[in-house]
Write a structure and sequence with these properties.
The protein has 203 residues and is an alpha+beta fold. Strands 1, 2, 3, 4, 5, 6, 7, 8 and 9 form a 9-stranded antiparallel sheet that branches. Helix 4 crosses helix 5. The chain binds a DNA duplex (13 and 13 nucleotides) through strand 3, strand 4 and helix 5.
DNA sequence: AGAATGATCCTCT
DNA sequence: GAGGATCATTCTC
């Protein structure tokens, strides 16, 4: 996608990423997957966001130019990967929570240490591991680099929205968007709504 | 199907 | 020095 695609409101970018192909062409090989689950994280207006309290060394990428990868390490074990949105200087990023594995399943399985397709990338830590996203990729450009998002969009069913997973502050915002199916991480059941019922903007 | 738990380390206060 | 945008495993219904 072009820079323009990412230089928009984080919620719009989150919805527009669903159904598109996420690709990583690394020296080890190429992996790709169709994005089926994301969460929007904003800035000073979002207490659930790393950027809520302003810029730090860790979250600096969130404030940088749109269309870059924001990767951070958490829980002592896992990486989480986001795509930066909004104009440069404005914090905003879309957490990549799950993809349907499409290409490079062997490499994903090797990195993950298991072969079951449903477990390769159904969760932010799993996805990051399967795609080889680590701290050294934090800040890389998704326009013209080894990681990018494809322009074709394929949605297999209705898009749902729910509260975000794993946070305490800002938990009321309905900023998680996903397609139901085997490739999505398991969220809290029963609290989701059809995304189009929100009228495009929720909060 | 849902709840509890341990692993493990970087970042910020 | 505390806690976290998680995962896999192990438990209890």
């Amino acid at each position: 996608m072009t820079r323009r695609f990412y230089a928009r409101d984080t919620l719009n970018v989150a919805g527009a990423l669903l159904g598109r192909l996420l690709v990583h062409e690394s020296p080890e090989g190429t992996v790709a997957g169709r994005i089926v689950e994301v969460e929007a994280y904003r800035g000073a207006d979002d207490p659930g966001s790393h950027a809520f309290r302003g810029r730090t060394r860790r979250n600096a990428t969130m404030f940088g130019p749109p269309g870059h990868l924001y990767v951070y390490f958490t829980y002592g074990m896992h990486h989480c990967s986001n795509i930066v949105a909004e104009a440069e200087g404005v914090a905003g990023a879309v957490l990549l929570r799950a993809v349907e594995p499409v290409e490079g399943l062997e490499l994903m399985a090797m990195r993950r240490g298991l072969r079951e397709r449903r477990l390769l990338a159904s969760g932010p830590g799993r996805l990051s591991q399967a795609f080889g996203f680590e701290r050294k990729l934090d800040g890389i450009d998704l326009v013209g680099g080894e990681v990018w998002v494809g322009s074709r969009r394929q949605i297999r069913g209705p898009v749902f929205a729910s509260r975000r997973i794993g946070i305490t502050m800002g938990r009321d915002s309905v900023w998680r968007f996903f397609e139901k199916g085997p490739w999505t991480s398991r969220g809290p059941a029963g609290s989701e709504v059809l995304a189009h019922a929100l009228g495009g903007r929720a909060g």
